[in-house]
Each structure stands twice: as structure tokens, then as C-alpha cells.
Amino acid sequence: MGERKRKGIITPKVIAALKPGQSATDPAPRGGGAFEVRKLATGVTYYFRFMAPDGSRQRLPLGNDWTLAEAREEARKYALRYQSGERDLLAVLADEQREAATAREARAKAEDADNARKAATLGALLDAYVRQLQRNGKASAPEVARAIERNVAKPFPKLWAMPADDVQTEDLLNVVARVTDAGKLTEARKLRAYLGAAYRAAIRARQDARSLPDLRALCIRNNPARELAAVDGASNARERALSVAELRAYWQRIGASGSRDTALLRFHLLTGAQRIEQLARLTVDDFDADTGTVRLRDAKGRRKAPRAHVIPLLPEAAEALNAMAPKRIGPFLFTVTEGETGAVYSTVQHRVRKIAEAMQEAGELEKGLFTPGDLRRTVETRLAAAGVSVDVRAQLQSHGLGGVQARHYDRHDYHAEKREALETLYRLLTGEPGNVVNLRRKA
Questions:
Q1: Is 33 left (phi over 0), alpha (psi -120 to 50) or beta?
Q2: How many whole angstroms from its chain centre is CA 171?
Q3: Domain that residue 56 falls in
Q4: For residue 6, what are the contacts with CB-CB under 8 A and spacing of at least 6?
Q5: How confident is the model over 24-76, as pLDDT tens digits?
Q6: Fewer CB within a 10 Å sphere, N or C end of the chain?
Q7: Number of domains in the chain
Q8: Are 139 and 278 in contact, with CB atoms under 8 Å apart?
Q9: Is residue 211 part of a domain?
């Protein structure tokens, strides 16, 4: 059946009488558009019908999820717009829909960005920084993690949960000041350095493909730690270096051959007072029986990969190595647990302090107590006084080797010079000559 239009006000009765394909239109002034209902096989649909600027008749679908009264009111709103001058109503509405879609997309992006910013908290930043240190094999990673947990996460939970880009310098100042006020100046200095390094790493990650993806995802743009002033009194270099007499008295107390109790300290001193964290990582795979050497891995500083640092062993150092783990059950060489774990700094520090206290009580110290770090300084100081060059001392203790010349041009291994320096150290300790020995693994 063809289309047939019914005249008069549309009522439910009129709609019920329509056949599929038929329509009915409300009376309307000429040129003002009209409300129309059309019955299809699938049901009733409402329209606003109007004349387009090109003279064609257009229908604007109003849908079918309306009551008759609601659909008529919706058509009336379009009629007012049409009569006000929006004659190309379909084009106008299409533009509005595009603008609305663009606005929704912009709001969604802004909401996503806001959610990402809220998720990029100070805690997330510091955790990601620690994970990058761990991935890069930095020995400092555990210490940094503990310091952050102890001084930021636990005492400042609200700051920990704050977006990192919202953190102000004053917020971080409160964190560092809490540690400073407790009299822990060195820890405060380190904490300030960790905070600044974490922010710098996150900012750099936005341009560095080698950075941890978790850092890059934080999209950090500001570094509030940059304005933190240095902690006064925290970075003063220690000056304690034992005299030759003090050093020999120390050696007399730890130098008994075969003693397991002091083997750890003998090995530390006879290898040139290497950094404890590097000694702690030594395993049986780092020992070369053919050359009588151990290979340390120096990850200190901004190196992408640890630098191999080879140390010759005097016979007394080899003896101490064996004495540390006579019933070896694990791979670690520098140990107090038969090789199951490497000895940490606090273990060495505690043992050194006990010796130093005994020396102080016996009147063997000219100044105060000393630390493993003071022993390291002592070795360099006494070797310098004995005529060992600054280059050889640097090679022996693996410091100051980050310059362009050392990194790119100096390929000399310094093995002979390091052996001679250790022999000089042994003569300083005992007054006896020292010879490097080649070791063989036990069958």
C-alpha cells in the first residue's frame, strides 16, 4: 500500500489507524517545519520534517523511544531552531555531533592524563628508580631502597601518595630536615642525593630508550629536588688515616695466620682495603687460580656496566681467603657464613670497631677509633708516602678512573704495578718482603 498522509492533530488513535508505510503530520505554519509520525513494519518512528535551503524536503529522525507528547516537544525544539535561521538543520546538527565527539575525546584524554598523573606518585617514582638501579646492577640499590622506605614511605605516607609532579621543594625539604634534625647528617646528604637522582632519572627517561619503561611512563617534567640546598656538615671528608705505628698495631691484632676470626679483616687489608660492597660480591668464579687474582666488579658511579677490577693476591691474602671458609658450602669468597652469603659492610664495621676499641684500651691509638673507610684512606695515604704513584694507587683502589683518558685510551692492565704496591703495603705492615703467589684450586 502506498504512503498516505492523515490530516489533523496526531493522536494515538490516528497512529493506530496508520498502515505500514503511511504517515501523519501535525498542522504547522507554512515554512516552519512540521512534526511527523510514520509507521514502518518495525514500528512507529517520529520525525521533524522541513524544507532544506536547496528546496528539497528533509526529515530529521527523532527516533522511536518517545511517547507521543515527548516526541512532539522534541520536534517543537527543532522547529524553533529552524525558524530562527538554522535552515540547513541536518548540516548544523552534524557539525554539533562532530564537535561533541571531539569534546568527549578531549575530556577522555584529559581524564586519562589526570589518572596517569595521579598514578605517577612520588612513591611510584622512587620505587621505579630503585628498580632501575637493580636492573643496572648497582650495588647501592639495597641501601637506596632501605633509605627511601625508612625516610619517605613510612614517615610521609601522604607525600608518598602525592603525584610526583605536584611535589614541591618544601615537601622534600621536610623529608630531609627530619633526618637532619635527628643528627644524621650523612644520611640526610645521601637522601637528598637519592631524591634528586630519582627525579633526574625520570626526566631523562623521556628521551633515553635505555631507561626503565616504568620511569618513562611516569612522564615526570619537574625536579623539585633540584632546589634543595646541600646539607651543611654532611659531606665533610673524613681525615682519619692511621699512622704507620697504628697500622702495624692493627695488623698485629688481625695478622695471626690461620685465624678464622680475623681472616675477613686480613683479606680486606691485604687486597688494598677494597670497597666492602665489591668484596661482598666476590664468588669462586671471580678467582683465577692460574694468575692468583680475584676479579671485582666496580659499578660505582654512572657506569652502564660494572668495570672489571683485578687484584693480585699475596700468599697471606690467599691464606685469609681459605681461612674464611674452610668448610665452604656456598660460592661467596668474602664471607663469615662459609660462603653462603657475602659479608656486608655492617659486619666488617663491627669487627673493625672491636679491634679499634681494644687498641684504644691498650693505648695503641694516637687518635680516636677508626672505620673500614679510614683503613682504605690509610692504605692510600701510606702508599703515597712510600712513593707509590697516584695512578697506581687509583688502579689499586679503583677510584678516579672515569675520565676520558682512562675510559678510552689507557689500556695498560697495571697488574705488575698493583702487585708491587701490595708488596709495599705488606712491608709497611710487617717490615718483611712480600711476594705474589700463584694459587691452584684444590682438587
A1: left
A2: 19
A3: 5-87
A4: 14, 17, 18, 22, 23, 24, 25
A5: 999 988 888 999 999 988 889 999 999 999 989 999 999 888 899 999 999 99
A6: C
A7: 3
A8: yes
A9: yes
